[in-house]
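Run log // design_07
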């Protein structure tokens, strides 16, 4: 799964990197966020229905399906991640996968070992060049009884690559920039991009021990990464 991630970039850098227009233009968001947690509102990139261009909006992490009757119906349910293996079958994901795919900007993500007793050492994963990248995401829109809309999203996960597997059996789907347009295409509802939901290449990623304080959502800042203490991949991971 993926239950925490972060980004170093501000709104302008994200917009430039993904060639997306903030909507609205004064989209409010912090310059960086080193401990993004579920239920917070974060930037996502999608294809505009009106113009076909990329737009950046804020959405809630934890997808609320359009068919939800009451927000209490999804409490206790884990909709922060969508499993690639069931994305075409499960009612929660099936329709968003056809028509409402998005990019989720990130600079790194955290994971805790699947096995072992707490307290567990968290690890930070990022691309080898420390660049901004995108998770494959799904978004949806839900309207409450008063007519107010809530836009929300989920991160798609898949089986772990060799690097991730030393820590956890699953990982978020990281998309290559060459596949962004295909993933976002709202018009393509027949030849769905299921083939993009694969593990990212291990050799293009690196991992290091993160600050254990990242487990508390109140802790935020670059110290969550302990970047100065990056270790060699094999030395940082339990074998």
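design_07 sequence
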């Amino acid at each position: 799964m993926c239950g925490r991630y972060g980004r170093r970039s501000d709104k302008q850098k994200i917009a430039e990197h993904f060639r997306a227009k903030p909507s609205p233009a004064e989209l409010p968001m912090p310059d960086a966020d080193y401990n993004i947690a579920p239920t917070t509102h974060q930037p996502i990139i999608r294809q505009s229905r009106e113009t076909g261009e990329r737009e950046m909006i804020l959405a809630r992490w934890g997808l609320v399906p359009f068919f939800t009757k009451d927000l209490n119906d999804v409490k206790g349910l884990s909709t922060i991640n969508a499993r690639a293996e069931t994305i075409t079958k499960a009612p929660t994901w099936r329709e968003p996968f056809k028509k409402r795919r998005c990019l989720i900007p990130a600079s790194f993500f955290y994971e805790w070992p699947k096995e072992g007793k707490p307290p567990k050492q968290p690890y930070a994963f990022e691309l080898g060049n420390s660049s901004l990248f995108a998770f494959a995401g799904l978004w949806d829109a839900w309207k409450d009884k008063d007519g107010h809309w809530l836009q929300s999203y989920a991160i798609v996960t898949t089986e772990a690559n060799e690097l991730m597997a030393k820590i956890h059996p699953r990982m978020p789907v990281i998309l290559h920039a060459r596949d962004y347009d295909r993933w976002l295409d709202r018009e393509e509802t027949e030849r769905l991009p299921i083939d993009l939901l694969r593990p990212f290449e291990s050799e293009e990623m690196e991992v290091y021990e993160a600050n254990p304080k990242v487990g508390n959502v109140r802790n935020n800042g670059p110290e969550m990464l302990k970047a100065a203490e990056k270790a060699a991949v094999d030395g940082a991971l339990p074998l």
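DSSP finds four helices and 14 strands in the chain.
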